[in-house]
Structures are given as C-alpha cells and as structure tokens.
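CATEGORY: protein folding

GOAL: derive structure tokens
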Amino acid sequence: MMLYQRYRPATWADFVGQDKAVASVRRIIERPSFDRGAFWIEAAGANNSGVGKTSLAWLIARQLADDWFVTELDGGKCDKRAVQDMERAAHLCTPNRDKPFRVWVVNESHAISAGAVDEFLTFLENLPRHACVIFTTTRRVDENLFGDCDSGPFASRCHRVTLTNQGLAQAFAQRAKSIAETEGLDGRPMEQYVRLIQTCKNNMRAALQRIEAGEMLA
C-alpha cells in the first residue's frame, strides 16, 4: 500500500487545509435531523488534483456508515443499471444503529452517463431514509457537465462543497513531514517540505509519492 493510501485521513483532524469545507459538511451531517442527503464535492480549476476530494468523501461516509455499507464507484462506469442497483439497496436496513446509513461514493462524477443522470434525478429526489450519495469531481456542478443535459436540477439535489487549492502549502507540509517522520523517511527541514508541496502544486498524493521515493532523506 502506498503512503498516500496508508495515510488517507482517518479523522477530521487529519484532514488539513480545508477548514471551511469541513465546517460546512459537519454542520450538515451532525445535525440531529440529518437522515439522508447527497453531496457534490468539487475542486474545480487548474491544479486541483490531490487536494482531498475522495478523502473528504470517505470521512463523511465513515461517520455515517460501516465500511461494509460504503460502495465506491467510478463515474465513467456508473450507468442507468448501476443507479437502479443503488435504489434497490438503499431500501435495505443496516444492523448498526449508531451508523445506520448506506453510502455511495461516486468519483469522477462528470463522467456519469446521460442515462444515469436521468435515473439519479429520480433517486436523489426520493432518497430513502439513511441513504447518502457523495459525488466527487474536478468540475463545477454548474458547468455543462453532462452533454446536453441541464446540470441545474442535478445540482439542486446536492449539498455543494468546494475545496480550495490555495493556501495549502504550510498545512500540507506539516502533515507530509509528520508522515515522513513516522515512516523514517525524514531528514529535511520544514521549509523544504513547503517547497516540495509548492513544487507538487498542492497535490498531497504527488508529494507523498516523492517522499516515499526517498526525496526528503538527508
């Protein structure tokens, strides 16, 4: 398992640099009345890879559901039949009263097929209790995402969460150095970690791959 996989944030404290997004998400899912919902997690614009889209999705998912009841899908493979399977599964009960949700994480959601978009509109409009769908993408939901399909109705059914790729260098560098120290791969001062993050354009995954290759050893 690569470093970026092993050290994917497991707690809200581990998820650094995106305080505004975290606060927004937690306000929603920690309300006593929250019993179903959909999220659109976007990191739009240039240099937006590795800023935490999937990590945030999994933090939400694991607060709501056991791992057994979290399903991760690729948007490009998410067709009408896949959404119909989700609809059927959403009505099944889970045994954990503390985490009663079923959650689906759909990555690269801009690649969802037109047929799946139509099916999702119905599913999201009538989400069963304790069902949650989390979409992640590098595209804004108000862009022309789905060809000729109007993305407005889709967007209106989701809580929209926008991640930033600005001002992340210091927080990401501290996290990267901590991981390097734990793995015995550290030998450089903090300013060189900041420079590494900046060189990687705030892509934590890319930075950890370079640390794993020994770049930060003395």
